[in-house]
Amino acid sequence: MADSKTLNLEGIGACTLFEGIEHTNIKAMLKCIGAYEKSYKKGEFISVEEDFVRSVGIVQSGVVDMIKEDVWGNGTVVVRMKDNEIMGETFACGSDSSTKVSFMAAEDTVMIFLPFEKVMHVCSNSCEFHHRLIRNMVVSMANKNRSLMEKIEVVAKRSLREKIMQYLSLQSEKQKGDYFEIPLGRAELANYLVADRTAVSRELANMKAEGIIDFDKKMFKFL
Question: How many other C-beta atoms lie within 10 A of the C-beta of residue 97?
Fold first, then answer.
């Protein structure tokens, strides 16, 4: 297990988990709680369903997919996480710390892991920045739960068009402008909607032809 002296902390201050904490304090805190770094190759599983999660992971670099498999082994990407995003905190804090999903490196990925018990329990020094870390962890879990609720709103719609409209409406509301940019490419959008990529592209083209929406790559507008 590596200590914070060997961790690559470049850009880690952008992680919401460390919001409001000075960079020098981040380094000291990671050493205190025993954070460590681990690398994964593209396609390698970080954890699989039913694994016990005892650490919170931060994507230092790369991309991680949260995957849910059905009884036939077909996997669906539930969430895609990129630089400085957090994974595993929901399972680590639960009474049953086994995962109900798998986490896989979609690209070559470097993770930083923070033992959850040490994150959520203030050390004997009672450092002020550790209290901030706990607060940020709770906020992060609340934000992720809100994102998952949004996805439920989308995928609960019956038709593919209704799913697309609901997703675009949520993005438009967040950006509060005539034009809005979605964060997902076509393949990622299809995974998010639990739909076939070709079907999504075809439905978007139909909606554009019917004058419902206009778009250019990731930039959209309701007409």
Answer: 15
201 pLDDT tier (thresholds 50, 70, 90): very high
Q: Name the nearest CA neighbour of 160 among 198, 128, 214.
A: 198
Grouping H, G, I as helix, E, B as strand and the rest as coil, residue 39 is: strand
Give CA–CA dist 15/84, Å, rounded. Answer: 5
- Do residues 119 and 56 lie in contact, with contact meaning Cβ atoms separated by under 8 Å? yes
Q: Is 50:95 a contact under the CB 8 Å cutoff?
A: no
Instruction: Give the Cα separation of 67 and 76 in Å (integer).
Output: 5
Six-digit token string for 47: 């954890």
Q: DSSP 3-state assignment of 204?
A: helix
Q: How many beta carbons lie within 10 A of that of residue 4, not counting itself?
A: 19
Nearest to 188 by CA among 100, 111, 78: 78
d(CA 3, CA 6): 6
Which pTM value belongs to this model? 0.73
pLDDT band at 114 (very low <50, low <70, confident <90, very high): very high
Residue 111 confidence class, pLDDT cut points 50, 70, 90: very high
The half-sphere exposure of 49 on its side-chain side, counting CA atoms within 13 A, is 10
Q: What's the CA gap between 140 and 142, in Å, rounded?
A: 5
Max alpha carbon distance in the chain (Å)? 64
- Which residue blocks in 64-178 are alpha helix, DSSP H? 89-92, 116-120, 128-155, 160-175
Task: Compute how many other C-beta atoms are within 10 angstroms of the C-beta atom of residue 163.
Answer: 22
